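Researcher: Batch entry, complex prediction.
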Amino acid sequence: MSSQKLKIAACQMKVVPGHPDINTKKIITCIREAKENGDDIIIFPEMAIPGYLLSDEWENEAFLVDCLSYNEDIVHASGDIMVVWGNVDIDKNHPGEDGRIRRFNTAFVAQNGEMIGKFYKTLHPDYREFDDDRYFYSARKLAQDEKIPIKDFLQPLQTEINGKHRKIGITLCEDMWSQDYSISPIDLILENGAEFIINISCSPWTWRKNNKRHQVVREHLKNHPVPFIYVNNIGIQNNGKNIFLFEGNTTFYHPDGSLYKIAKSYEECSLRGSIFSEEKEVHENPLLSKKIDHEELLQGLLYGIKNFFKSIKAEKVVIGLSGGVDSSLSAYLLAKALGPDRVFGVNMPSQYNSEITKDIARKLAEKLGIYYAIIPIQEAYDFTEKQLESTQFESLDGSEDKINLELDTLDKENIQARDRGGRVLAGIASALNAVFVNNGNKSETAIGYATLYGDINGALAPIADLYKNEIYSLCRHINEIEEKPIFPKKLFEIPPSAELSAEQNIEEGKGDPLYFPYHDKLFRAFIEFRLDPEDILEMYIDGSLLEKLKIEEGVIETYFENNEKLILDLEDKWRKFKISYFKRIQAPPIIAVSRRAFGFDLRESQNGVHFTRRYQKLKKRLLKID
Amino acid sequence: MSSQKLKIAACQMKVVPGHPDINTKKIITCIREAKENGDDIIIFPEMAIPGYLLSDEWENEAFLVDCLSYNEDIVHASGDIMVVWGNVDIDKNHPGEDGRIRRFNTAFVAQNGEMIGKFYKTLHPDYREFDDDRYFYSARKLAQDEKIPIKDFLQPLQTEINGKHRKIGITLCEDMWSQDYSISPIDLILENGAEFIINISCSPWTWRKNNKRHQVVREHLKNHPVPFIYVNNIGIQNNGKNIFLFEGNTTFYHPDGSLYKIAKSYEECSLRGSIFSEEKEVHENPLLSKKIDHEELLQGLLYGIKNFFKSIKAEKVVIGLSGGVDSSLSAYLLAKALGPDRVFGVNMPSQYNSEITKDIARKLAEKLGIYYAIIPIQEAYDFTEKQLESTQFESLDGSEDKINLELDTLDKENIQARDRGGRVLAGIASALNAVFVNNGNKSETAIGYATLYGDINGALAPIADLYKNEIYSLCRHINEIEEKPIFPKKLFEIPPSAELSAEQNIEEGKGDPLYFPYHDKLFRAFIEFRLDPEDILEMYIDGSLLEKLKIEEGVIETYFENNEKLILDLEDKWRKFKISYFKRIQAPPIIAVSRRAFGFDLRESQNGVHFTRRYQKLKKRLLKID
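Model: Structure tokens for the complex:
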């Protein structure tokens, strides 16, 4: 009892959303191990029992009661170790504001076979994939209802560990990300005497978020230097339209905010450390670099693909291989994540497909060692063209009016795309008891440059959160890290093309109607920065466009010979971005890796197009119209 | 000036979401008319300028500033009439909790060319289609930040009208629906001396909601009898996955809560009434009956279809006519809403389609006077079958392993469905520059009894919020109200069937594997009541199942010979309900008419299936397993 030291196990577990039985079983196993190891405290992530992204399953009361019942198992298992874990709590005496049972996102604490505390989440994120106020009642609302100042409400847990009285600040996820809120739960609980902070989280990976978190923690500890333990889960969770990656990155911080221990990404483990000890181990501050970004991105995509197919119990996957860069990257990821013997590549040529791309498709399949077949679509296409063009509608209103169908170029292109996606790929996947994937990228998705019921089809869109230039860039990275290059040089040289008509003949250098060096940046401004055409024009006029959107010098001049052309394109792309949402409504789930993914991360309505009054003014000024 | 009377115009305008220019133009016109009419006050709905269901467009700051700029036009137009309207307000000095600009759902008030007040919404709904806390900062949070008790915060507007000082309680939508909240803004503002209440709303139609509202108002006025004016918009608004109907039902209430005036549903108008007058006109309390429910449902669906196609600028619509009840109802609704000359019916027989249904399809098209064509799919189907069955995959891993494709019955059924939806209907719609519809019903949608990229395709699912029995029931209602019956008797006699194989031969009385009199009620329990299989078993055991789910006597016995069969089916349907979400992710927008529609009204995750511990216990008890 002489030591003040506390031995802590931070359990970076893989949480399976919606399956409290599986999660609790794992928790109990980890508690047993921690006891054997002589740990004083074991900590599990936020919502470790139910999972977090459950959508409206939070309204299923029987499920909630079921989740809650697992608390007893944990309390029972606790013994002399203190256990902190996330679960949902309910209040049967007060309704939630949705008229259903009131729910709380809660950190429970058990010790010596008893429940000794529970703490409700104070700050509720309601942006991107987060909907905490939809599902939970916050400590903030409770304090207001009980007319208690929030500072008085946020008290540390007081308990005895190894004969010593302790004050422990227990918080949940967003409680530490308080910069945009009017209160800071971490600061308040520290002012109320917490000797160390536990933050249990269910926090998805996004670009450079962990580095941001290290800063945030340092900021909190500046005036109150105490140990800080951040416990996050691994796994994937989804809201249907998006799949989010949880990499863990469970971290112990020293009182000065420096890093003590960090768990490996995507690895299930109990990270162990001691606080109030002489231990001075310091973990290096993680670096930031494009290379590390690529590594993290690749690791995340592979983890997401592997776990998504596992979660839907899909053993085999079918993929259309066009010989273009998107499907090539997609095939690589599938083969790497699932193993080549589970991947079935299909090349589906029509008269418009070049020998170049057919050759790339075959060679890529060989390099990956996957299954491969060629299924031409020309004959089926010709039949459909003939059948439709010979179709006549008769009006049955007595007028004897007749209408014949005529197909234009776009109609014909779309027939090919639907033949591939809706007839061939879906038919093969069905026959193999497999699923198939969508190979779309974010640039195409942004303006609906894809055919609904054609190439938009698929059970998963693994790379739809990557802009075209990011696709190329990731392919180059893969070529560098693989023993032998996977993607042939030719792939980087041919123009991106759908090859659906003579107008898209890559051998004549023709391809997709997008200027990726410019449009990728423009789309990111729309999607991730939430900018309006008004903002784009404003920046263009004041000369800050290149810098703010990180567009390379000379790019604008390359594509637009004058202001009028730039404005025409801007309006065209904004219009397509808005209108093409009708396609995204019916698009498959996307693995979210950016700061804003299409799907249920970026929520949209079919409301057409609007240009602001200020936009109209700026346009007139630029075009010198009075 | 002797009269105390106030003449009020309640403007039930059609709000076009995302188009502040269009909405403001209408507002200005109505203000002009009200001035000519000598009104004292004119009131517009909640979010009359921007619209309400804008999804993440609320993050577009240029759009917000644009919306706000239209306030000036209204203030300028106000003159000596007092104007109350809904718009978004922003606070550039404080961030929203999403780190973007802080926004408020606001009621603005102008008079004599000046802005004289603004009131923020206090209660924020975050259920079903509502996401107020995602988008707006509430008066409640503001009061907590400013450390002001909420009652002190909610003060009436004080102003002079016709030389008399007035205290007016101005509230927004949910502020009156406070039964599940810990505070009641209406009651507090009445306690603070409001002489009458204005509630501006953007409140979608749902089953019997208006009657419920009349009760709620009476309850509020019980202790504080004052005039109450409820102003709601008409139109449709959407969140992509769902289309919501706004019928208006703008209402003046007498101080005793009785009805004074009610605007007609879906009609744009300025409803005029006088308060503090001798006017004793009483509007009858609306009746409740199944017949009225049918009328409202039909009116809503027609309004929704008409306005949806208008909003997406679709002139023509293509519909597959199978001769079954779902497509028949769908075709009727389209012809009625859009006019028969805009509807193109297509019958797409294979070898499995009976003469009976082909005949029904043709006769229905004749009755409706729409365009019609027959496009057989057998030849295309046979080609696909042959092509797939002759396909061989070779493994390119060096093993020379080969895999041939084999099609089972289900594979073959799905090929037919995809041929119809993905090849024929999509091809025709494309050639006609039209869209096509999905004819699925809610019962099928609940368990994914439909083919993805086949009959699930479409730009709109007009009847996917109606269970199979509601489809029949609405068809009967239509037959009653139309001069001559639309739907032939035969349609009600044949079993519902997909007619995709010999196993679904209606001439042998075979059809879909669903017991609609039972399953419709079971699905409603899952979807709308949010019940779990545990609850179903619990009710079954305690004998309350029939009553609680409104299942008819004898139905259970008809379909299930013993408890084991019932349990098998219950687990099968729960599993299918959960798993089939993967199809709904890619399904088209649904017009919401129930208390919970699939789409973004009921939010789901792909999390597989879970049975609670209590369910397992009840099951064992029922099957007498130890």
